[in-house]
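Hey, quick one: can you model this chain's 3D structure?
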Amino acid sequence: MECKVTVRKSHYPKDVPFEVPEGWVWTTLDTIARFSGGKTPSMDDRSNWENGKHLWITSKDMKSEAICDSQIKLSDIGLQGMMIFSPGTILMVNRSGILRRTLPLGVLQKDATINQDLKAITPYIIGLTPYLFFCLKAFEPIILQDYKKAGTTVDNINFDLFVTIPIPLPPIQEQWRIVQSIQSWMKGIVDIEESNDEILNTIDSTKSKILELAIKGKLVPQDALDEPAIELLKRINPSFQASDNLHYEGVLPSGWTVCCLEDILDYEQPQAYIVNSTDYSYTYKTPVLTPGKSFVLGYTDELSGICNRLPVIIFDDFTTESKYVDFPFKVKSSAMKILRARGEINLRYVAIFMSITRLAGDTHKRYWISEYSRIAIPVPPLREQDRIVSEVQQLFYQLDNLVASISAD
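Sure thing. Here's the predicted structure for all 409 residues.
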């Protein structure tokens, strides 16, 4: 059987935003709550603050919807002449630059005082607090758009106008049901976010494990017909002699060998590719890169000094972070090396190894020549390098799609 809800538009106040169900009524904020401001005792009088134990809430403390502490506290002397607000009082930032982006709201969990940048909203009926809080949160975009004071150096809420904001008021029992439903949904959202964080952490761990298996020869099947890696390295350097490496002894498949990074990579200083100007724009064509997490710093319109001999690995000489690059680019800093493969080495395979091989130490030290270039890398036959790279790319593609679907949700 179809359930019909009768709705009506109340005659009070006029021009209400939307129709409400039967049994609800439109009212105004000043009809159902009283308002108070705060102040700041003299900062020059240390007796107001020494050994402070009484909460004094400012905009800096409005980082949670449940307000239970303050960065600065008043002493017994400082508390004199201050208005104390009880738990259940709704606090709202009334004056702050943050009002350009958001409207901080919270509910006091303990007795507290406030400063002049906040307003206290105390419902005449204590049980109204949870519903009124969620109602104001829902109206946040409207408040920030229509209830601001114009022509002030610091953003303000026009409180004389704000107190007349229309409030849709349901019966008290329905208020409780609405609050319970909202809290249930919000808990579900938090649970989903926490689950997503766990999934993302698991994906990161999975990627690291994939790379670890790749450089140990455990990610793809071996092929006895592959040319041994030692032959590949001898073509790069006829005098190359494989040396024993205790770290990899007995753990690498047949046909693999071990060499130093400097045996298979050449490096170039980046001075020729440094931008002249950091006046970046997304309308420009050439990316400016860093080996760090940001990777792309911006885009430049400079036409000269572009690194076009690709692919390369860009290597931060101080942090030992690295990135594989197969598109034209420029750089901002000289604190890196540009690395290229010698001979037939698959540079993506080398990049896989370097992505999980970091040195930690003195950040003022340049690492490539002194240490990093001498790190031992396990080298598989060329065809297996190709198979490893292909498998890693396919697995990472699937994992990245999963991350994208989680982020979209």
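One thing worth noting: The longest strand covers residues 118-123.
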